[in-house]
Design goal:
With 112 residues, the protein is mostly helical. The protein is built from 6 helices and no strands. The chain has one domain. The two termini are 21 Å apart.
């Protein structure tokens, strides 16, 4: 599987929401909703909400991706990803993601 690097460095190609959307896999939507309810302590997630084509791709975005502060920051600066930003490694917004997904920072570094 190739990579589809998000604005923050996460790999959208490996995201279950994107995989379920692209393959129209309702079983994966259900499993993802159940997993994310526990993982993110968000009991309101339903399988019907699991639809996303990736934050840098055209198409539908899952709620938190559409409203993501990092995504909105990159778009407001007319950048491709956070890798293009001078403060990438000191950015407080990015640190929130990278503390839980250090591979996202490595993905961004690999883009330069």
């Amino acid at each position: 599987m190739g990579k589809l690097i998000a604005y923050c460095g996460l790999n959208c190609a490996a995201c279950d929401a994107r995989i379920a959307t692209i393959s129209n896999d309702n079983e994966l939507r259900t499993k993802t909703a159940e997993k994310w309810m526990v993982q993110y302590n968000a009991q309101s997630i339903t399988p019907e909400m699991i639809n996303c084509t990736g934050c840098r791709e055209a198409g539908i975005k899952i709620g938190h991706c559409e409203q993501c502060e990092i995504r909105n920051c990159v778009l407001s600066k007319n950048l491709q990803t956070c890798a293009d930003c001078d403060i990438m490694e000191s950015c407080a917004l990015l640190k929130k993601v990278h503390q839980f997904a250090p591979e996202a920072l490595e993905n961004l570094k690999s883009l330069n």
